[in-house]
Amino acid sequence: MTQSLTIDIYSDVMCPWCLIGYGQLGKALEQLDGEIDAQIRWRPFELNPDMPTEGEGQEAHLQRKYGRSAEQGAEVRGQMKKVADSAGVSLSYQGDQDPAPDAMMWNTRDAHKLLGFALEQAGPQVQTKLKLALFKAHFNERRRIGDREILLDIASEVGLHREAAKTALDDKDLEARVIAEESRAMDMNITGVPAMIVEGKFMIPGAQAPDVYVNALRRVAEKARDSV
């Protein structure tokens, strides 16, 4: 019998490991087809809540934040690209501009508000569609994720009503719910992302290999069956 599980993924659009983790989770769920039916919901976590609206160059930001050299940054990016490729996702620029636009870091509060709106108004599947579109816009197209008009374009592209999404961006209650969810993450000792919370109480931290997700989800599914 197939076991239904809810997986809440705390993540940020700026986080490459969050995209990698989702790719690895997808591979795990393929292995668990027929065993586990997962409903995925995305929860907010801002890696840089104080990022100004004009953003910051990615390399300069990472050098400043982590104190690493340009050479070290290039090495990390190379390693990350290999892991991403194995997870079936891409962190590479795929646009047609030559040279490619600078890789940037943006403030993601509005992106999280849109994701909250998508979940509340259209459900988990549409929310995941929006999340993946935001990842693509950031990593593969290098669009200005901190710009509201760009965000509304992306929302429209996945089938959300543009004017309703625009209203959501100005909704103070929605913003308060996003902030409350981020506070809840801190209460659960989530200090980095991705962090996956299965059935509201079992945490799988970081971007894990598919086999790690398979084993963890099987254990949770077994506990869920035993508790019935």
Describe this structure in words.
With 228 residues, the protein is an alpha+beta fold. The protein has helices spanning 16-31, 58-66, 70-87, 109-122, 124-140, 148-157, 162-169, 172-187, 210-226, and strands spanning 3-11, 36-44, 56-57, 104-105, 195-198, 202-205. The strands form two sheets. The protein has a four-stranded mixed beta sheet with strand order 2-1-5-6. It has a two-stranded antiparallel sheet with strand order 3-4. The model has no long low-confidence stretch (mean pLDDT 95).
Give me some keywords for this one:
4-stranded mixed beta sheet, two-stranded antiparallel ribbon, about 230 residues, alpha+beta, 6 strands
